Amino acid sequence: MKIAADLHIHSALSPCSSLEMSPAAIIRRARELKLDAIAVTDHNSMANCFSTAAIGKKNNLQVFFGMEAQTREDVHILCLFQSRSQAEQFNDHIYALLPDIKNNPLYFGDQVVVDEQDNIIRHEEKLLLNALDASIAELFELVRRYQGFAIPAHVESAPFGLLVNMGLIPVELDASVMEISCATRPQAVLQTFPELARFPLISNSDAHFLKDIGRAYTIFDAAEASLPSLIQAATHHTYHVHFRNCHG
Ligand SMILES: [Zn+2]
Ligand SMILES: [Zn+2]
């Protein structure tokens, strides 16, 4: 079956994201766009994933638990989970690796945790826009331990893309699926980084505003709408990327 999935969406928890990005609003927009699966991937936290998943369940939309982790090397990695309990444990583990620095909402923006009815439950106090005390290799190991999948995000784009910051692909990422940003196209990326040719290259919206959800997404030819099936479809190259007009 064809599964249209946007696996990189920021909610209002990300300080750089719009406050309109509530869990309910994200689900509404994803349904309008007829996406089959999404993941909310805020910076270094899954705090809004759980209410998003609950709303998704009621609306027949598959929501994976996600996070865009920032490693010690300042590389962004999408961390995706199927199981809520594994995701919760991973999230707790990550929180302990986040520096104890307070957010300044006036400078960075609000970091709000929102319930299913659009109520703000709390403000996250720690600044989420920070590097974790974990290397790329350590993060991959941690994701594996909780049976998740790690996908380096927007690998070709500055300032947090893997290839921009590392200049090479670490050997422990040999079997990875890679994400390229929605502002580019695979052919263009491969011209600059030919070493990516052996990797499945998916794309997502990296939306920080409702209008941007689904500006790029990946259609997987998968056995079912589960995360292992989507990853398997990617590694078997039975997928294609859909781009809407997208600039940045
Ligand atoms: Zn990023
Ligand atoms: Zn992002």
The amount of beta strand, in percent, is 15-25%
State the end-to-end distance.
31 Å
Mean pLDDT: 96
Tally of contiguous helical segments: 8
Description:
By secondary structure, this protein is of the alpha/beta class. It has a single domain, classed as TIM Barrel, CATH 3.20.20. Helix 1 crosses helix 2. The protein contains 8 helices and 11 strands. Helix 1 links the parallel strand 1 and strand 2. The chain has a 7-stranded mixed beta sheet, sandwiched between helices. Strands 5-6 form a two-stranded antiparallel ribbon. It has a two-stranded parallel sheet with strand order 8-9. It is globular, with a radius of gyration of 16 Å. The chain binds zinc ion (2 copies). One zinc ion binds next to loops.
Quick take:
The protein is an alpha/beta fold and 248 residues long. Helix content is 28%, strand content 22%.
List descriptors:
binds zinc ion, 8 helices, seven-stranded mixed sheet, alpha/beta, 248 residues
How would the blueprint of this fold be written?
Elements: E1 2-9, H1 23-32, E2 37-40, H2 49-58, E3 62-70, E4 76-81, H3 84-97, H4 105-108, E5 112-114, E6 120-123, H5 136-145, E7 149-152, H6 162-166, E8 178-180, H7 186-192, E9 201-203, E10 216-221, H8 227-235, E11 239-243
Parallel strand pairs: 1-2, 2-3, 8-9
Antiparallel strand pairs: 1-10, 3-4, 4-7, 5-6, 10-11
This protein binds zinc ion (2 copies).
